[in-house]
Amino acid sequence: MAQTFASEVSGLGTIPETNANGAVQGGRLRRFRATIALAAQADGDTVVLARVPAGYAFAYGIINASATLSTSSVAIGVAGTAGKYRATAVFTAAAPTLFGAVAAVDDAPLTDAETVILTNTVAALPGSGTLVVDLFYSAP
Hints:
This protein is mainly β. The protein contains one helix and eight strands.
């Protein structure tokens, strides 16, 4: 039977063997927490969630709120790519919900530091409550 190698460990099938990138194989998971006091932030407003250093690789995120965001839609990403980590969508669960766009999860580690933002779209956020966004990255 044929044996193939995942992209992250392709160097194990070469001579001489090469090591996998420590940010994606055997790295340490780091959390960036952002707690947002909901105050009727307007459609189009952005909230800075974190400044992530170069060399970190996105793993996943968790969004949670003390109350549903009703008809408000939020995206999580960076300037110019608002939905890099979470596409624009409503959040009505009011319970911890995983997110992570596959296009970001399979990315190589960041070559430069980036500022992660939440972009509010469609309608104003609720006038009260708390929104918590946890971003998880692996790093060597």
